[in-house]
Write a structure and sequence with these properties.
By secondary structure, the protein is an all-alpha fold. It has one domain. It contains 8 helices and no strands. Helix 1 packs antiparallel against helix 2, helix 2 runs antiparallel to helix 4 and helix 4 runs parallel beside helix 6. The longest helix is centred in the middle third of the chain and has 31 residues. The termini are far apart.
Length: 235
């Protein structure tokens, strides 16, 4: 593991720890449970790579961990959808239909990809190859959901919890960059691996820094009548 790679992993781990600490200290872990699980999964996998690079700094482990992380990103999109639209019946009907369309389309693509890979000769590395081939489609489906959620929130002018807003504002540009990086890696193989990896890492560090700010930011004081700050509760 090169010194630059170790530095990148260390920075990511520190940012993840800071973000998790902010969520726990500010009492925001329950605002999006799948997001907390996602941060924990990334923290665990990156820590394993840093501590035991001979075992976990490998192509096979990268594919497995990214597959798990991508599924958790998809879970975050679904949880944000439920939490944001459950109190608004009109908007909920629209988003339910849209979610169903995205899930059906994604399922169809996954089945076709599985069948195409399954028709190939059996190889030792085929599970990793299958996971790697499926990742762009899972990422695309997740990105579609985040964009759709953001568009419907703007269309219906729905109130959004600050942390949920930070997730939406952060995930959309990051997933765009990540999808491009994965497609470059699939198209050009090892030649594009370094460039795609560093591009993804820089974007991810910026994203985590933004989430650290959102996790630690104090909530605005609740307002009482006539716009005045609500008095503290009686002892």
């Amino acid at each position: 593991m090169a010194p630059v790679e170790k530095l990148v992993v260390c920075v990511v781990i520190l940012l993840l720890a800071a973000c998790l600490a902010g969520l726990f200290i500010r009492g925001r872990t329950g605002l999006c449970v799948s997001f907390t699980l996602y941060l924990g999964a990334v923290f665990l996998s990156d820590t394993l790579i840093l501590i035991w690079p001979q075992r976990f700094h490998s192509w096979d482990f990268w594919v497995v961990k990214e597959s798990v992380h991508n599924l958790l990103k998809f879970a975050i999109a679904l949880e944000l959808t439920v939490r944001t639209f459950r109190a608004f019946p009109a908007a909920r009907k629209t988003v339910n239909a849209l979610m169903l369309g995205v899930l059906v389309l994604l399922l169809a693509v996954l089945v076709l990809t599985r069948l195409s890979v399954g028709a190939m000769p059996l190889e030792v590395g085929r599970p990793q190859e299958l996971a790697f081939n499926l990742q762009p489609y899972v990422l695309a489906g997740t990105l579609w959901l985040f964009i759709a959620i953001s568009a419907l929130i703007l269309w219906y002018r729905l109130p959004v919890v600050p942390l949920h807003k930070a997730l939406l504002l952060g995930f959309v540009p990051y997933l765009l960059i990540f999808t491009v990086a994965i497609n470059l890696l699939r198209a050009f193989g090892g030649n594009a691996r370094v460039v795609a990896g560093y591009t993804k890492n820089v974007a991810y560090q910026v994203l985590l820094a933004y989430w650290v700010y959102a996790a630690w930011k104090r909530s605005p004081p609740r307002r009482g009548l006539r716009g005045t700050a609500a008095p503290p509760p009686a002892a």
